[in-house]
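Project outcomes to date are best conveyed with an example. Our students and postdoctoral researchers have been running inverse folding experiments weekly, and each run begins with a structure described purely in tokens. The record below, which covers 217 residues, was selected by the lab manager from last quarter's runs and is presented without edits.
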């Protein structure tokens, strides 16, 4: 492939990316203006945001290069406590999965307490220590994610690009395994945070949501 062809491909990719950013900006602005406490109808905005987000991910890491799910019921990465939980994620969980949060309240409390007990200021090391406890995500049900359709963006953008068995903390090659994590540019990522009040780890954020909104109307 010539340098000219590569340059043209990069330019097209950049234009596609900018177009998707523009659409996401509009969708997020529309989403933030909705009063979801009085109107259950989300006009499909959640699904649209997911769709555009997935298109953006595809630009950076085509699904043909991902090995996630290449084996039945792949859930080897579901021993983490994902960070980067946004206000958007919390709204989605509130609207779509609040009953599930209530059902798992005790497990969330217990796991979050355990997570805090091993606290280390270095977030990456803290996450590794937590993964080593081999505590499955509270939403993992018989090898499947029970909130998969509405899983957080942090989960949606985390992929394996090698043998997915190595994602499991029991695998001897766990620390050699390679993942790909994609996040939106900072200006868009910040739009996903309407408040800094809630914790950004999944366990803490879910408990915060349950405390703030004890019973969904």
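After processing, the design step wrote out the following sequence:
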């Amino acid at each position: 492939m010539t340098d000219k062809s590569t340059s043209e491909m990069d330019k097209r990719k950049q234009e596609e990316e900018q177009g998707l950013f523009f659409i996401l900006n509009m969708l997020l602005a529309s989403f933030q203006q909705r009063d979801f406490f009085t109107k259950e109808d989300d006009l499909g905005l959640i699904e649209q945001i997911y769709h555009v987000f997935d298109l953006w991910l595809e630009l950076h890491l085509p699904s043909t290069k991902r090995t996630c799910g290449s084996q039945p019921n792949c859930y080897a990465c579901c021993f983490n406590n994902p960070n980067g939980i946004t206000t958007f994620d919390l709204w989605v969980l509130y609207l779509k999965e609040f009953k599930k949060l209530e059902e798992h309240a005790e497990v969330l409390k217990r796991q979050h307490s355990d997570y805090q007990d091993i606290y280390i200021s270095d977030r990456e090391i803290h996450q590794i220590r937590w993964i080593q406890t081999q505590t499955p995500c509270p939403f993992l049900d018989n090898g499947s994610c029970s909130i998969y359709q509405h899983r957080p963006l942090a989960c949606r953008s985390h992929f394996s690009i090698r043998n997915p068995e190595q994602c499991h903390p029991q695998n001897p090659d766990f620390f050699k395994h390679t993942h790909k994590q994609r996040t939106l540019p900072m200006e868009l990522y910040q739009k996903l945070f309407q408040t800094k009040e809630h914790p950004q780890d999944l366990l803490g954020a879910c408990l915060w949501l349950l405390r703030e909104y004890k019973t969904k109307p």
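Residues 3-33 form the longest helix (31 residues). The mean pLDDT is 81. The training component of this project remains on track.
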